[in-house]
Amino acid sequence: MARDTRERMVLATSKLLQRKGFHGTGLNQILAEAEAPKGSMYFHFPGGKDQLAAEAIRSSGDYVDRALRAHETANALESVDTYLADLGEALERSGFVAGCPIATAALEVGATTPEVGDACHAAFEKLIGRVAGWIEADGADHATASDQAFLIYSAIEGALVLAKAQRSIEPLRRLRAQLPRLLGRPTT
Amino acid sequence: MARDTRERMVLATSKLLQRKGFHGTGLNQILAEAEAPKGSMYFHFPGGKDQLAAEAIRSSGDYVDRALRAHETANALESVDTYLADLGEALERSGFVAGCPIATAALEVGATTPEVGDACHAAFEKLIGRVAGWIEADGADHATASDQAFLIYSAIEGALVLAKAQRSIEPLRRLRAQLPRLLGRPTT
How much is the ipTM here? Predict the structure, then answer.
């Protein structure tokens, strides 16, 4: 039961970080959404909000990695494309509040709260590594796969910033249309 | 003098949004940094924090556009590359707190506060249009220039997210190395 409370708190924090960011997420709201008693915060997370946020970011990184893997095929282009199609649908369905669960905290406090910055960095490395693995398995050499995955993941993060600003999945559509070029494939 | 107070408030808000985001920026801090009396907020900005933030985002968009134009040459690749070199230097000098002055607010409240979202969207359109203009002037057709500028600007925003998380300008360096490919130029 104690374990459940802790897990609920991490999950609630992940969702709140995704929708409202670090500064927009209050401890009372976390406790309320996790249905956790007041004392749970410093009992489970003696390091306070920073520790809880770092753990939520790690959990979010694992969540996004599972989402990536659910789209894995032998064709890297198809894997990224179908992932982005589903990401766009989920974003639209949420009224454009549910974008990347890591990026907002990274921009807000990545540079000033090392515990959170490190968790964001490790999550991004893992996700870029996942995409790089797809590209390499699809025939590219290691260095090329790594460069292309970095560029694709950067463009995804940027397209999500643009999509939230304009409340439209058009930026994700545009990015999908350019994936062949990003992957060095002939465009049709 | 009233005009000066208003301008100081917009400037202070722009800087705070860049460093701490929307939710991390308090009205009292804005007033303090702008050296503005208490009543200034609703005297100059009857629409409150949303109105002030939207105006600060517009002002930041103009600021970034001036920074882009300061790097304008006849060669689009060189223009983007030297802009990114200076952006990286400024980011590093700030201890990685001063990234894009628009993206954090876009992720936090772009989808939920239309006044701020619209200002972010308009600013991004202007900046992407600036880069597209460079690429078109450098010989690309309009549609290609627009696609390449969109992709480059998305990648810049994403690389800034990664740079803040890892407190390193390495992502900007990697992006610069891939600019020739993004612009369809032969790589050396």
Answer: 0.96
